[in-house]
Amino acid sequence: MRKSLLLLPLLCVPFLNSGVDAWAPTSAGEERVGDSRLEEAMGVLKKGQRSLKKLIREPEANAVALTALLAKLEAAVVVALGERPPLPEGLDDKQSALFMVGYKREIAGLLVAVLALESAAIEQDPEALQAGYQALTAAKKSGHEGYRES
User: Fold this and answer.
1) pLDDT value, residue 140
2) Domain membership flag for residue 60
3) Are 114 and 74 in contact (CB under 8 A)?
4) Which domain covers residue 54, as residue numbers?
């Protein structure tokens, strides 16, 4: 318990480093191009996943870095949840709404995977960390198949 409390300040770092507007969802009519917050969040996840693979090899030795990285990944997923991916062409209003619900469901699954990794890191459970890493990889792949621009 005491070890967990020592890690609590690290969990707050991503929230302190980003402005309030970083958590505001994109409005329904707002289109983002170029370096959107969604692209930025996905970039954080991609880089973080590479680092995560290395850190989970020795979770006890990398406990502080692992906790900080997972907090950063969690923050990126929360940002992505409030964003709107580009809609495929030719969708009517109902199809567009269903597309967005599906997107949010995929991002929520990604958040669940990151939270499971955070729990495993706190418990310093190597098997759960490996399983969590596999779940994170699967969740990202699933999301890319349906919601990534070609």
Assistant:
1) 80
2) yes
3) yes
4) 2-14+36-147
